[in-house]
Specification:
With about 325 residues, the protein is mostly helical. The protein contains 14 helices and 3 strands.
Length: about 325
């Protein structure tokens, strides 16, 4: 009995030492603790249900969309290639956050290593910037298709699409890679608790007791030079598209053009509106907006657009419907 008590005391002492180690040591050694959604901890289990449902729907919908585009030669056109790129980025973006969030909600798995936190932060921001670039490429595709239809096949060649893809990935990497070194240069001497469901740049920087002014300005510049510039260029593209559409003499042609662009506009709004609202609410809302609202919005804008994008394109695009039917017929023939 005495030996059991001695062992229990030793385990308690070791546990105390571990807690002190987490609280007092360098965060780079101890790792970080993700709190989930502060103020709504008692709802974590219930919130996990819609998050899990949306995540599975995003995986299934985008996976099916990619399979349809790959399997149907009639969809091997620039518009649908860009759509498959968007679907791929959406799968990766939601997967970079949701598994860890759900593990936290279900099992209380809040700990993440410092390098793991940096890796998650990099991929979240990298994929968000890539998503934005793909939307810009899709806007350019619609601009060429409507404003210069006779030159469409000569402008958007396979080589041009390859260059756009390479430029999208290169730009995202160049913009986000320096943030890793900007965070690694900091000295971390405060607590290691991040009041969020996932790691993001400023959340990690605020754990430091060093001057983070460079991180703040770099984050702002990166946002303006990537997402901000993309929004401006997309808006300019659609101004020219609308001008070209209204010059069309045929009502049927105008209707077809609006229908073709309508899906893309819906996707753009779904992607940018929640993200921009979250950013501006965080910057200017101050204490008027509870912290859990910011975190809920941050989680929703990485899972709702990926979930709804395949539905929007599936419902509004006849070619996708036709491709889905043809793929099902081919599968049925193969099974018999």
């Amino acid at each position: 009995m005495a030996q059991v008590r001695t062992l229990q005391k030793a385990m308690a002492l070791q546990s105390t030492n571990n807690i002190a180690y987490l609280n007092d040591s360098d965060t780079r050694l101890a790792g970080c603790l993700l709190t989930g959604i502060p103020g709504l901890e008692y709802l974590h289990m219930w919130l996990s249900i819609p998050f899990f449902t949306m995540y599975i729907a995003a995986l299934a919908g985008n996976g099916i969309l990619i399979c349809i585009i790959i399997s149907q030669p009639s969809l091997h056109e620039p518009m649908y290639i860009f759509l498959s790129m968007l679907a791929s980025a959406d799968i990766l973006l939601s997967t970079s956050t949701m598994p860890k969030t759900l593990a936290n909600f279900w099992f209380g798995s809040s700990h993440i290593s410092f390098d793991g936190c940096l890796t998650q932060m990099f991929f979240i921001h990298f994929l968000f910037v890539a998503d934005s670039a793909v939307l810009l490429a899709m806007a350019f595709d619609r601009y060429v298709a409507i404003c210069s239809p006779l030159r469409y096949s000569t402008i958007l060649t396979s080589k041009a699409i390859g260059k756009i893809t390479a430029a999208t990935l290169t730009r995202s990497f160049i913009i986000m890679f320096p943030s890793i070194f900007l965070l690694k240069r900091l000295h971390y001497c405060r607590n290691n608790i991040i009041a969020h469901t996932f790691c993001e740049h400023m959340g990690i920087a605020r754990l430091s007791c060093s001057d983070i002014s460079i991180n703040v300005w770099y984050g702002l510049a990166a946002a303006l030079l990537s997402t901000g510039l993309d929004i401006i260029l997309i808006a300019v593209s659609y101004v020219h598209i609308l001008q070209a559409v209204f010059r069309l003499s045929s009502r049927e042609a105008r209707s077809k053009a609006f229908s073709t662009c309508g899906s893309h506009v819906c996707v753009i709004l779904l992607f940018y509106v929640p993200a921009l609202f979250s950013v501006f609410a965080y910057r200017f809302g101050g204490r008027r907006i509870p912290g859990y609202v910011h975190i809920l919005l941050a989680n929703l804008y990485v899972v709702i657009p990926p979930m709804l994008n395949p539905i929007i394109y599936g419902v509004r695009t006849k070619q996708i419907w036709d491709g889905a039917k043809q793929m099902c017929l081919n599968l049925a023939k193969e099974s018999t």
